[in-house]
Automatic annotation (TrEMBL):
InterPro entries: Acyl_CoA_acyltransferase (IPR016181), GNAT_dom (IPR000182), N-acetyltransferase (IPR051531). It comes from the Bacteria. This is Ribosomal N-acetyltransferase YdaF. Belongs to the acetyltransferase family. RimJ subfamily. It is an enzyme of class 2 (transferase). PANTHER family: [RIBOSOMAL PROTEIN US5]-ALANINE N-ACETYLTRANSFERASE, GNAT FAMILY, PUTATIVE (AFU_ORTHOLOGUE AFUA_3G00765)-RELATED-RELATED. Keywords: Acyltransferase, Transferase. Residues 11-175 form the N-acetyltransferase domain. The keyword Transferase applies. The keyword RNA-binding does not apply. Its EC number is 2.3.1.-.
């Protein structure tokens, strides 16, 4: 199920590895990922990251998930992660993703997820992919919309994070919406 490498114009995506722990720790030092992603610790120690990677590798082995390092082709620098958690019986999955702060607002995540989602729909025989974000995380909302995902609901005061309640915005994408040739057909505003 795992790709050797998924390549895009500027990036390649590969399975996460234990050797990625130091780069992940460096990308997460500013706390911005933890601020936008409840459940992500800050500081996130190398030992915690190594344990998470070990768990991720078990998911990959069991075919219940995919955990991809997003890397720049030009430098081999790991710039973020994209993951998929599969519920095989129902043929659906949930994605999560983040980029280091120096790599945001450059179209990298949309580029990476276009390749990953296309691969995931086919490799895992999925009918549906979902994603969610804190309502305050408008950057994730923009990525989901660019991918052609449809906002399906808002769970009000669903998460208690940073000493306050937050709304969670849910998005969904059906394989039939993904497009005839495996490429997204983004929803266009009216």
């Amino acid at each position: 199920m795992a790709p050797k490498h998924l390549k895009t114009k500027r990036l390649y995506l590969r399975d996460i590895a234990q050797s990625d722990a130091d780069q992940i720790e460096q990308l997460m030092t500013d706390g911005s990922v933890a601020h936008a992603a409840p459940g992500t610790p800050h500081p996130y120690t190398c030992d915690e990251i190594l344990q998470r990677i070990t768990d991720n590798l078990k998911d990959i082995e069991k075919k219940t998930g995919s955990h991809l390092a997003i890397c720049l082709q030009s430098t081999d620098q790991l710039i973020g992660l994209a993951n998929l958690t599969v519920t095989a019986h129902h043929r659906h999955a949930e994605i999560g993703f983040w980029l280091g702060s120096d790599y945001r607002n450059q179209g990298y995540m949309t580029e990476a997820l276009n390749a990953a989602i296309d691969h995931w729909f086919n490799a895992y025989n999925l009918n549906r992919i979902t994603a969610h974000h804190l309502a305050l995380n408008t950057a994730s909302s923009h990525v989901m919309q660019k991918l052609g995902m449809t906002q399906e609901g808002i769970f009000r005061n669903h998460i208690f994070h940073n000493n306050q309640y937050h709304d969670i915005v849910w998005y969904g994408l059906l394989k039939s919406e993904w497009g005839k040739h495996g490429r997204n057909q983004p929803n266009q505003p009216n």
